[in-house]
Design goal:
three-stranded mixed beta sheet, 216 residues, Glutaconate Coenzyme A-transferase, single chain
């Protein structure tokens, strides 16, 4: 299994049945492939509630998500204007948003819309989702392409929102924000505590349960 799919599969385990979920661009879109389309309601900000997946056998080339990827349509899906879709987000009717990031800092703020001096896709609906979604999960590679940490003491790129995210899932680790501090609650794959410490700039605590399991 690829790193991206491993992260997406782990993120799917955090979702409650019959919840409304918005999947961001990149790794988040893969989460749909690990969900029963009859038990989850996937939302896209361009105006569809009832997205299924981006797998080849399930897509309709005439239907796209917010990232312009062809997607599938669940039975009973609902279409609406993008203004109504954003009203759903801003009104608190999205239970979980799963987003990718460029950076995330130890306070829980994320940067995922701009790299100064470079032309990238832009903010999209991330600003609204960070404010309006009841829970926000970040799915990302643990480091950037140059090997530098993406989980930092403080974001160096423009932040998307002051909203603090709830969970970070990478190919190395799962962090959950508890009492305004991130706690390492799970190792992914063959990752070690030493490797995570080496590749993470942010301060975090290791859960007692994880410490005990590693030592045993």
């Amino acid at each position: 299994m690829s790193i991206k799919n491993m992260i997406a599969e782990r993120a799917a385990q955090e979702l409650d049945e019959h919840s409304v979920i918005n999947l961001g661009i990149g790794i988040p879109t893969l989460v749909a492939n690990y969900l029963d389309k009859e038990k989850y309601y996937l939302h896209t900000e361009n105006g569809l509630l009832g997205v299924t997946s981006i797998s080849e056998e399930d897509i309709d080339p005439n239907i796209v998500n917010a990232g312009k990827q062809p997607v599938g349509e669940a039975t009973g899906a609902s279409y609406f204007h993008s203004a109504d879709s954003f009203a759903m987000i801003r009104g608190g009717h999205v239970d979980v948003a799963i987003l990718g990031v460029l950076q995330v800092d130890e306070t829980g703020r994320v940067a995922n819309w701009a790299i100064p001096g470079k032309d990238i896709i832009g903010v999209g609906g991330a600003m609204d989702l960070l404010v309006g979604a009841k829970k926000v999960i970040i799915t990302t590679n643990h480091t950037a392409k140059d090997g530098s940490p993406k989980f930092l003491k403080e974001c160096t790129y423009p932040v998307t929102s002051t909203r603090k995210i709830d969970m970070i899932i990478t190919e190395l680790a799962v962090f959950e924000r508890k009492d305004d501090k991130f706690e390492l609650i799970e190792l992914m794959g063959d990752a070690t505590l030493e490797e995570i410490a080496e590749k993470t700039e942010a301060d975090y605590v290791v859960s007692d349960a994880l410490n005990r399991s590693v030592k045993s």
